[in-house]
Amino acid sequence: MTLSYDPIPVLQSAGYTEREAAFLYLAALHSGYFLRRQYLRFIERGRGALAAQFLRRAFALGHIQSIACGQVRFVYHLTSIEVYTAAGLGASHHRRLKSDATIKSRLMVLDFVLNHLGETLLDTDAAKVSHFTETRGLSESILPRSRGVAFAEEFPAILNKDGGVSFSYIDEGALSASGFEHFLDRYTSLFRALPGFVLLYLSDSAQNFERAQNLFASKLADERPGTTKLTPRGVDHLIDYLRVRRQADAKQWVLSLRDLAVLREGDALYHAAEHQALIAAGDIERIRHRFLEQAERRKFIPVVLPYRYPLHHFRRERVEVSDLGSSERSIRTTVLQQQTMQEQLFSEGGDEW
Fold first, then answer.
1. Burial, 271: exposed, middle or buried (Cβ in 10 Å; 0-12, 13-18, 19+)?
2. What mean pLDDT is predicted for residues 96-115?
3. Which CATH class, in words, describes the domain spanning 7-98+310-346?
4. What global pTM score does this model have?
């Protein structure tokens, strides 16, 4: 995301250190939720007083709320409109309360982003739309949409050093692969328009990997092998055209009506400088191998994230802990005494998981 100002000093002016402000910006942009271990990982520290100091400061400023998950575990929700506005994200829906599955998904997104700090990310829907329409020149009509919003899933993508794109899909523990199937249905037009891409299927369990792999293969199988930007009708059509073109240029063969049709279609399709080089080279087997190899650049890579996430088993009662930022909640929370909650939230050992 591109801002006309640096949000870190703006957040620092509220009382945060530079590292705390940078982490809050990252959490606001990608998740809205975070874990203590994620902050410690961001500042590259183990357990200690720094996380407790950060949490105390954020609670005192009224910027975060705690969600108790049992077994002295907490998720922290960044709810302050002031923080989101300072980060240029005033319209973000991350400050709204989410379902348990969505909270887990957002935490997984934040872990993915922390795994790829320093890489070039397409981190907002606007950045993705700009990249695919302006940089790559694709039609906005082929972009994936849900409820009228492009890239509504908010799964980050990586711009690779070779110019390719690595998309991500977050499986937060679904019982079936139907969510992934719907994701593929929305993205297939975009995927087919790209010469190659990687899809990272991220989960904390491998249970859906095989089903997801099969869906990926079935949805993106080429009816015409070797289909690329240079071979929109498949590599066999290009090779057929090269054969007829060679015969026509040699004038040693009487062309059939089919040959003439292939020649006419090919002349309209294969007129770029790259095509002329292929015609001059004439090595059909090497051409076939090249384009079949390029067509296989659609890669599905399953990844098990090596982190644990909380299971939210909230009781019906709500706990009144306004000074901790968790009083006005519609979610069911575990009943803990206020003093015990404070000790657990701000202990230097913390909830490491």
1. exposed
2. 93
3. mainly alpha
4. 0.74
